[in-house]
Fold:
Amino acid sequence: MASAVQGVQNIIGYTFNDSDLVREAISAAGSIVAAGTRRFPNGNKRLAILGDRVLQLALAEEWYDGTEPRATYDRIRQAVGSNNNLYSIGLASNLDAFVNLAAGGRTVSPITMAATVEAIIGAVYLDANDMDTVKAVMDTLGLTAASLG
Structure:
């Protein structure tokens, strides 16, 4: 598992203080994973929900500093935060190589990959307690309005 933690950190360009957050973030729902005395019975579901909201907040902050209308924010949020985009980002970044699947799982489904990317964003937020760090990780992964082209 240490190599998985290091692999994720290398991909996102951030070193965690609490490596258990990475372990939780890469644990798909139904997988059996524990770190120390912590268990993740729902895998990364809780972190994914948090990460989804943090992603939206970061995008809203970026939009707020500009002059674009609200419809532009909605378009950016839907495009960057869509499961299809998160799945593509996860695969392109090779994060799928580090996902702990449920028993019998062989491949990372699009929904699982999307949730894992969101969970990683949530984990960075909890670990760093700093939106600038979250935004830097999002930029590294290509999860910004600028990445839409």
